[in-house]
Design a protein that fits this description.
Layout (H helix, E strand, L loop, with lengths): L1 E4 L3 E6 L6 E6 L1 H11 L6 E2 L1 E3 L2 H12 L8 E3 L5 E6 L5 E6 L21 E5 L8 H10 L6 E5 L10 H14 L2 E5 H7 L5 H12 L3 E5 L5 E4 L6 E3 L12 H16 L5 H5 L3 H18 L10 H12 L1
Parallel strand pairs: 1-4, 1-9, 2-7, 5-6, 9-10, 10-11, 11-12
Antiparallel strand pairs: 2-3, 7-8, 12-13, 13-14
Helix pairs in contact: 1-7, 5-6, 7-9, 9-10
């Protein structure tokens, strides 16, 4: 089982006319859980869902996409909102209304006590915003010997503009995680002036990570395994609509492949993965992310779509 842990929030996307906004379900964890389930993986979402209108919308959206909400907390706080703007290349910029909202108010009693043999994927704002971030890190630190921990740093500087604090937080999570996923932009913000792949390699060595995944936008993606040269996968050429949810589609696809191949049941299983399997999963994830970029908002592909794209690329 892959347990996805973190936020389910509402993205407010610009409409066709000034002042027109569309409310769409979003949040890194929610997007990743949907991506995993569309790819056939078992992936319940551990989240806190508001009882307000937006929270009910999020719950309905997740259920419609087959996401198991057995651990979703019925939260009294309001839902988190993210206003989204796009630059000329389709890249998204976010402004969050997150103070005191449902996603960050975790208490230890709300978290499952048994995760041995599972993979827990956590990231984005849930690993930064307090009081929940510290609760989640302590929970996973106590379980990392038998639970595979995946961490998506997914830097949102607008939520925490102090990059020194963000860097310290990310390093703290790398001490807990076995898998790191980051974009080149994430690593450039955290380690300015340093090549992103070299930064990922350093984090693997310094923190004992078993795998680091770096997405490079149009240049593809890289996987770093301890003791091996970086593995690279090209980005399939697509017509980009926007990049919302592309990173979540990528990590969802990679984790789905780890589960399918038998490498997600704990740290020992992942440590047995060799470069060939790691590269094949990387290619699969790169194609999933590319397909996500061809659609407005977060809409990850299913397994049939990714396999069709892979078949087209091979032919």
């Amino acid at each position: 089982m892959i347990i996805v842990c973190g936020e389910a929030l509402v993205d407010l996307i610009p409409g066709d006319s000034p002042g027109d906004w569309r409310a769409l379900p979003g949040g890194g964890a929610a997007n990743a859980a949907i991506a995993l389930n569309r790819l056939g993986a078992r992936a319940p979402l551990l989240c806190r869902l508001s009882r307000d209108h937006f929270g009910r919308m999020l719950r309905a959206h997740l259920e419609e996409n087959g996401v198991d909400l057995r651990w979703a907390v019925d939260a009294p706080e309001q839902a988190t909102l993210a206003f989204v703007a796009f630059d000329a290349s389709g890249s998204a910029e976010y402004t969050f209304y997150a103070s005191g909202t449902a996603d960050w108010q975790w208490s230890p009693v709300e978290l499952p006590s048994e995760t041995a043999g599972a993979c827990v994927h956590v990231g984005t704002l849930a690993t930064v915003l307090e009081p929940g971030a510290s609760v989640l890190r302590s929970w996973l630190r106590a379980r990392r010997a038998e639970t595979l921990v995946s961490y998506d740093v997914n830097v949102r500087a607008v939520a925490c503009p102090d990059m020194d604090a963000y860097r310290e937080n990310a390093r703290g999570w790398c001490d807990v995680a076995h898998v790191l996923k980051a974009s080149a932009d994430d690593l450039s913000l955290l380690f300015p002036g340093r090549d992103p792949v070299e930064a990922a390699q350093a984090l693997v060595e310094e923190h004992g990570l078993l795998l680091a995944l770096v997405t490079l936008g149009g240049e593809g993606a890289v996987a770093v395994l301890p003791g091996h040269e970086p593995l690279r996968a090209a980005a399939p050429p697509v017509d980009v609509v926007d990049t919302v949810g592309a990173g979540d589609a990528f990590i969802g696809a990679y984790l789905a492949e780890l589960e399918r191949r038998g490498f997600s049941g704990g740290p020992a299983e992942l440590a047995s993965m060799g470069p060939e399997a790691a590269h094949e999963a990387l290619v699969f994830a790169a194609h999933a992310a590319a397909l996500a970029c061809t659609r407005a908002g977060s809409s990850p592909p299913d397994r049939a779509e990714v396999e069709a794209a892979l078949g087209k690329a091979v032919s």
